[in-house]
């Protein structure tokens, strides 16, 4: 089975930081794309940041300069450092992985459709 286990969510004040982690149970040796998505009530799920096995990254315009995605292949762990958090960042955050995909797919319209494996979600709440 492919399992994704997330951690790092929580409640912070505006301007604070969090680091989300997602440990993935398998390695996609032929290539992969890993990403973070978020969804708040009544809104579409949106791609936040992606990274692929070529090292390319992509970010939603709303988080550029504030969020940073990285992967530790030795630990099979995906990270997203989130700085300068804003109340509008409040959402359930999901990690996802799929075999060979470009990082740009994460932030593309309907990009979530291309990912077959998802974590359970971790809540991020940013208060003003």
The proportion of residues in beta strands is over 45%
Rounded to an integer in angstroms, the radius of gyration calculated over CA atoms is 13 Å
- Which outline best applies? globular
Distance between the termini: 40 Å
Helix count equals 0
Main sheet overview? 7 strands, mixed
Overall pLDDT level: 94
Helix content: under 10%
Derived structural class: mainly beta
Order of helices and strands: EEEEEEEEEEE
Highlighted features:
single chain, 128 residues, mainly beta, seven-stranded mixed beta sheet, four-stranded antiparallel beta sheet, 11 strands, 48% strand, globular
Would you mind describing this structure in some detail?
The protein is mostly beta strands. Helix content is about 0%, strand content about 50%. The protein contains no helices and eleven strands. Strands 2, 4, 5, 6, 9, 10 and 11 form a seven-stranded mixed sheet that branches. A four-stranded antiparallel sheet has the order 1-3-8-7, with no helix packed on it. The model has no long low-confidence stretch (mean pLDDT about 95).
Question: How would you summarize this macromolecular structure in one to three sentences?
Answer:
By secondary structure, the chain is an all-beta fold.
Topology summary:
Layout: E1 4-7, E2 10-13, E3 18-24, E4 32-39, E5 46-52, E6 57-59, E7 67-72, E8 77-82, E9 91-99, E10 117-118, E11 122-127
Parallel strand pairs: 2-11
Antiparallel strand pairs: 1-3, 3-8, 4-5, 4-9, 5-6, 7-8, 9-10, 9-11
């Amino acid at each position: 089975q492919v399992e994704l286990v997330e951690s790092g969510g929580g409640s912070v004040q505006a301007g604070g930081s969090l680091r989300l982690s997602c440990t993935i149970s398998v390695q996609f040796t032929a290539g992969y794309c890993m990403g973070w998505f978020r969804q708040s009530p009544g809104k579409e799920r949106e791609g936040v940041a992606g990274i692929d096995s070529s090292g390319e990254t992509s970010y939603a315009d709303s988080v550029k300069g504030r969020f940073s995605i990285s992967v530790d292949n030795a630990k099979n762990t995906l990270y997203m450092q989130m700085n300068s958090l804003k109340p509008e960042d409040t959402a359930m955050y999901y990690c996802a992985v799929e075999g060979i995909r470009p990082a740009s797919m994460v932030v593309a319209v309907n990009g979530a459709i291309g990912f077959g494996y998802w974590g359970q979600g971790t809540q991020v709440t940013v208060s003003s």
